[in-house]
Amino acid sequence: MHKTPLLLLATLVLILSSQSCADSSSSLPSSSDGGEETIGDVGMGVIAQQSAGFDIMKKMVGNWEGELTQFTGNVINISSEFRMISGGNTISEKLVEDGVEMLTTYTDYDGELIVKHYCALGTEPVFKVQSVTDNSLSIVVDEAESGYNPEKDNYVNSMTWTINDSDPNQMTVGSTVYMDGELQSQRSIVKRVN
To answer: Tens digit of pLDDT for each residue in 133-156?
Structure first.
């Protein structure tokens, strides 16, 4: 007989808590709507207009899986998790090739997309945009920023993402890699899994 008032009180607290959370989350500014991002009570400013290259990378946010055909002809499993971070200013990619995890970041600087890849080869090349269309992006190593020598360093030299025109949940990813002084090509087909 004492359970009913206690159950009603618990239900009321749950309803009020849910309403309070819904009210506070709807008033939070979102970087995607052009509002000012905040951390605590400090305004981070409004995100500046982003480059066409960054806009293409935003289409890739989510999880992708597929197969990579290495330059040796070997085929391995790959996955990528693209996440929007830093209040909408950066995209991070966790790339896993045959169980080996790597990290790539995509961010704008002075209206240009800058890409940095933390590679399993032990190098960290920086890339600049070579070309961009509505459904593709090609980047090439920025030699001045990276400082690698193809005759003595092993590093990724270029990457291209092409989203399938008829199925935006499928894309082709191409790359070139300098290995032991030779430029090698690789290609993968990946599908969005969520």
So the answer is: 999 999 999 999 999 999 999 999
